[in-house]
Design goal:
Keywords: Membrane, Transmembrane, Transmembrane helix. This is AlgX/AlgJ SGNH hydrolase-like domain-containing protein. InterPro entries: SGNH_hydro_sf (IPR036514). With 387 residues, the protein is α/β, with parallel strands linked by helices. It has a single domain, classed as SGNH hydrolase (Rossmann fold), CATH 3.40.50. The chain is built from 15 helices and 12 strands. Helix 6 runs parallel beside helix 11. The longest helix has 28 residues. The protein is globular, with a radius of gyration of 25 Å. It starts with 5 loop residues before the first helix and ends with a helix. About 5% of the residues have low confidence.
Length: 387
C-alpha cells in the first residue's frame, strides 16, 4: 500500500477547491447541527424535528383489554398527522373523538346517537368539527339530539359489538340509537384480523392492520421485534436541521403524490377480485354478519335502534362498482333483520369522471375522505337520520 505524501494531499485539495469547500461546509454544518441537538438535549428541551406519522398517531391511541384498542381519554388540542397533513385531535371523557376535552355524562335528557366505524368514521386527517360526525353533532343540536363518535381506526363488526356492549353493560352509558358505518376493510379484519378469547374479549389473530395496535398486549401471538434504526432515523434523532429538511421533503412528496396511489387497494378490491374474495372477502362477510347480529340482539334488548351504512373507496368509484358485493350483502342482511340501511355508494356516483370525483372527495393519494367528502356524507346522513 502506497501512503500519499503531504505534497500529494495538498495538491489534491488545491486542484479541487470546489469539492474542498463543499466538504468543509457540509462537515461544518453537521458539527453545528449535532452540537445544537446535543445542547438542547442537555437542557431537556430537544424534540426530534421529524416524527413519523405512525408515532404521532399512536400517541393518542391505546390498547384495550376488552375491545382491543381505542383512543385515550381527555386529549386536548393534540396535533396529529396523517399523510403529512397535520390536524387537531381532542377526545372526551369516554375516549371518543370530540370537539374538545369535555365530560360526557352517562345519561342525557336529550336523545343520543352513537356513530361507530373505523378510520373513515373516526375522521383520519380531519379535525372533528369538519368530519361528518362533528357536522351532525353541530346540526342536530337544534333538535336537542346529541351525537357521540365511538369510532377508531381499524375497527370492524367484532369490535363494534364488543365496544357497544362494554359501553352499555360496564360503563352504563345511555343512548337511543347506533349508526354503524361498515367499511370495506372490515371483511379482511373479520376474516384474518380479530377473534374473541375465552372471555369474549377481542384479540388479534394475525394480519389486522390496526393503527396504534403495535402497543397492544392483546394478541394471540405477540411479537416484540425491535426495528433497526435507519440512517434517516439516526440523523432525525441526533440532529435538528436535517430533521426539518426531512419534514420538508416528506411534505412536498405528499403534496405532489398521484391521486392514483389510492387505487388498487387490497382491502377494498375483494369486491371485484375473485381471488381476494375467496381469500377473505366471503369469510369476512359471514363472520361480520354474525357479529352484527350479536349487536342487533344486544340493542333490541335495550330498545336501541340500529342503522347500517356502507360507502365506497376510490377503487369502487374508479371501477364503477356501485352494485358492489358490499352493498348487496349488507342490504340483504339489513332487510332480513329489519335494520335501517343507508347506501352511500350512490352519493359518490361520478357526475363527470371517476378521477374528478375521487379528487373532489378523497385525500390526495389516500383512501379516506377529505373535508368535502365528509360534508357529502353529512348531507346524506343528516336527511336520513334527522329526528
Amino acid at each position: 500500500m502506497t501512503i500519499p505524501n503531504i505534497t500529494e494531499q495538498k495538491n489534491w485539495f488545491e486542484s479541487n477547491p470546489k469539492k474542498t469547500i463543499a466538504f468543509i461546509v457540509i462537515f461544518g454544518f453537521l458539527i453545528i447541527d449535532f452540537s445544537l441537538a446535543a445542547a438542547l438535549k442537555i437542557v431537556g428541551v430537544f424534540k426530534p424535528s421529524y416524527v413519523t406519522s405512525n408515532v404521532r398517531e399512536a400517541y393518542y391511541r391505546r390498547a384495550d383489554p376488552v375491545y382491543h384498542h381505542g383512543l385515550k381519554k381527555n386529549i386536548s388540542n393534540y396535533i396529529a398527522e396523517w399523510g403529512k397533513q397535520d390536524y387537531r385531535v381532542d377526545t372526551n371523557s369516554l375516549g371518543f373523538k370530540d370537539n374538545g376535552n369535555q365530560h360526557v355524562p352517562l345519561e342525557s335528557k336529550h336523545k343520543r346517537i352513537i356513530v361507530i366505524g373505523d378510520s373513515f368514521t373516526e375522521g383520519m386527517a380531519i379535525p372533528f368539527d369538519k368530519t361528518f360526525a362533528g357536522l351532525l353533532k353541530n346540526n342536530f343540536k337544534q333538535y336537542n339530539v346529541d351525537v357521540l363518535n365511538a369510532a377508531a381506526s381499524s375497527y370492524s363488526p367484532i369490535i363494534y359489538y364488543r365496544k357497544i356492549k362494554y359501553l352499555i353493560e360496564t360503563v352504563g352509558l345511555k343512548f337511543d340509537s347506533v349508526v354503524v358505518l361498515i367499511d370495506l376493510s372490515d371483511a379482511e379484519d373479520e376474516a384474518l384480523g380479530y377473534r374473541f378469547d375465552k372471555d369474549e374479549n377481542v384479540i388479534s389473530q394475525g394480519s389486522a392492520a390496526n393503527l396504534g395496535a403495535a402497543e397492544s398486549k392483546h394478541s394471540a401471538k405477540p411479537k416484540n421485534i425491535k426495528q433497526p434504526m435507519t440512517v434517516k432515523d439516526f440523523f432525525t434523532q441526533y440532529t435538528y436541521f436535517l430533521g426539518q429538511l426531512r419534514n420538508l421533503s416528506a411534505y412536498l412528496k405528499a403534496k405532489t403524490r398521484s391521486w392514483e396511489r389510492g387505487l388498487k387497494q387490497r382491502r377494498a378490491m375483494w369486491t371485484m377480485d375473485k381471488s381476494l374474495y375467496n381469500e377473505f372477502g366471503e369469510k369476512g362477510l359471514t363472520i361480520g354478519a354474525k357479529h352484527m347480529l350479536q349487536l342487533k340482539n344486544l340493542l333490541d334488548k335495550q330498545q336501541i335502534s340500529l342503522t347500517v351504512v356502507v360507502y365506497p373507496w376510490p377503487d369502487q368509484i374508479y371501477n364503477d362498482d356501485f352494485e358492489s358485493k358490499q352493498v348487496n350483502f349488507w342490504y340483504n342482511w339489513s332487510r332480513k333483520n329489519k335494520v335501517e340501511f343507508i347506501n352511500l355508494f350512490n352519493a359518490f356516483v361520478p357526475t363527470t369522471t371517476a378521477e374528478e370525483t375521487i379528487r373532489k372527495y378523497y385525500i390526495n393519494g389516500d383512501v379516506h375522505w377529505n373535508e368535502v367528502g365528509h360534508k357529502r356524507v353529512f348531507q346524506v346522513l343528516k336527511t336520513r337520520l334527522q329526528p
